[in-house]
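## tool: complex_structure
## caller: assistant
## args:
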Amino acid sequence: MSQNLETYAVELAQAARAASRKLAVSSGKQRTEAVRAMAAALRERAAHIVAENARDLAAAQENGLTSAMIDRLRLDEARIEKMARAVEEVAEQVDPVGQTIDGWMRPNGLRIEKRRVPIGVVAIIYEARPNVTSDAASLCIKSGNACILRGGKESFHSNMAIGSVIAGALEKAGLPAASVQIVNTTDRELVPILLRQDQYIDLVIPRGGESLIRAVVEASRIPVIKHYTGNCHVYVDKDCPLELAETIILNAKCQRPGVCNAAESLLFHRNVADQFIPVIGRKLIEAGVEIRGDARTCALLPEAKPAQESDLYAEYLDLIISCSVVDTLEQAIEHINKYGSHHTDAILTRDITAAEAFCAGVDSGNVMVNASTRFSDGGEYGLGAEIGISTDKLHSRGPMGAQDLTTYKWIVTGNGHIRT
Amino acid sequence: MSQNLETYAVELAQAARAASRKLAVSSGKQRTEAVRAMAAALRERAAHIVAENARDLAAAQENGLTSAMIDRLRLDEARIEKMARAVEEVAEQVDPVGQTIDGWMRPNGLRIEKRRVPIGVVAIIYEARPNVTSDAASLCIKSGNACILRGGKESFHSNMAIGSVIAGALEKAGLPAASVQIVNTTDRELVPILLRQDQYIDLVIPRGGESLIRAVVEASRIPVIKHYTGNCHVYVDKDCPLELAETIILNAKCQRPGVCNAAESLLFHRNVADQFIPVIGRKLIEAGVEIRGDARTCALLPEAKPAQESDLYAEYLDLIISCSVVDTLEQAIEHINKYGSHHTDAILTRDITAAEAFCAGVDSGNVMVNASTRFSDGGEYGLGAEIGISTDKLHSRGPMGAQDLTTYKWIVTGNGHIRT
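## result:
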């Protein structure tokens, strides 16, 4: 059995590598048409996808999944139409492959060029809704990468159906069907075996809960790009109008508390704490938010619960927020760099110098100035669909679009140049 | 003892992280002046460095190092002057930090910007000559990174002397001395402990032989950028003049055979094999090169030895080269992708279409068109000193300069923008 999984993992990986060689020399037109064909095929085969999705829904009900989880899993014509539109948006993006990123002529006449090329083979391990399957496939094909997709067992039949629809579209467009492969087993033993195929797979992107991501990092011999958690801060500087702070904090915390770019920690400069914390604190409480404050916050807002140090590190994903008072901007930066998760942190200020210092000092992938942390998102940045979010520092940071699935090559053109 | 090493590794890493926070908010002027001050200090303290280097030379003689190795180790006034000049060249480069890489305005008025920032803390584990110490320190400071440098035990006293000179220059320029730290022990047990400090160190760059690099990759919890070997190919296309092939092949193989960008494998299109292999083969043999050929090569050049399949993978670093005949350009690309090391591969051709197909199809960090593989080098590309060469695909590929020691941040500026 384990031998079979080993064989299957190597077959998947080798087929993906072979497909990636063809994708690397395909034209942008071909890749764009393939992605468009995916969207068309999703629409045409919607009934089939819905039927297969029904099998997942039945199993979910049998296994006692919550109604919220079952709703996330459910596909209907309208949701498939939405998936198809997202795929079309990816198709219409500028082709990142072949772009000259940089280039110059050396004094000896040698032409140096950095040209954008696909990474090669990308594996995506995810738990989320079945639309990730079509999003990931379209981003990979658009950027010239073969991919291996391993979704959650809850959406197995839906993913297999979407995968077969995509494979048909790829072949119609003259690209190898193995450009997008869906792992055809829910056996959890396969994942660590797949993660050792560093000879064939160039990059792994895990998407899901922290435990899934840690397990992937632990088992992988292939480079992983990831984010574990989002403990996003909103820092209210001394030079900030109350209304600005109130509007943004309520949005960052309450608009969708269960996602990684929701605010989890508030910091107030001491000059505004007395005035702002009681007002904003009560608005948050009215909105159903539990506030866990440091001693100064609790003194200003008796309704707040005292925070433990663990609260300063927490990603609640819920209507809870920690709140602290700092004496200086520098203290706010230090606090964020110590307790934060390097995901997204905001400063609210009218002071350009403070904003610049915050942007330079905070060691996070995304820094917001006078905007809600909730904007930290590939769609909101205009990247189209996103393949993931990185809190790593290498290769890509923040929301990752098609361009983040590319690397570059140095192309050096001479005319018989030799080194002396 | 191991407890002491653990404590020391954590101290080094924490001090580097603290220094990196200061560097992140330092001005480009300050960093440039610090690098200039390093160069000046190297010149001023040359006598001290030479005296400390003499201790390494004495130990080297005692330990029976070859005279070539001892010569590589030796520092004199002229070599220190060369080191100082290399550091000055880095100082005069354009500051990569703070550059806007990309940016746009969203329809809702949100300004999105990708801004280049330092990576943070870089550890460099190397075996090579003491000039790597000053090169690496200058590139890291120029790009706003703190670094931990761990050189070979043969150059321990030289590196410590260079390190103390650099620390003085940093303090003079108002930057933390811990921005550049030289590991003060030759105990090999320290390295794996250091490589587990992923909480404080962002990137590891190993430089040296393949076994050193493999040991670093195996032990590291921190992302590593590296290259193992350079099996560089020169492919002679059917549309290539004999003289062009002869000149470049001799240069790529013989100009400096012991380095990673020297050619190790030749491929000839069958249309030119009959004419070219006997002529170029004999020129190589005259230059002292041993040729290991496939059956078709050996038939055309009886002086060649038959190649084993292992020869096709080999990085000889010596006056030996493998030689094969291919039927098509596609076969050449397949051969390179199978046997190569993704370092540097060249096509020699007059045919633009063939050159483009080769550039797209060969999965290597550097592709040369009508130029010697020996140009694959940071200095030759105009990057100034290089911190290393990457055959990885993520983050950086090929020669790495100061810019490759940066990442980016998304800076999003609004005016009270909330997500709805």
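## assistant note: Chain B has two domains: 2-226+397-413, 232-380. The mean pLDDT of chain B is 95. Handing back to user.
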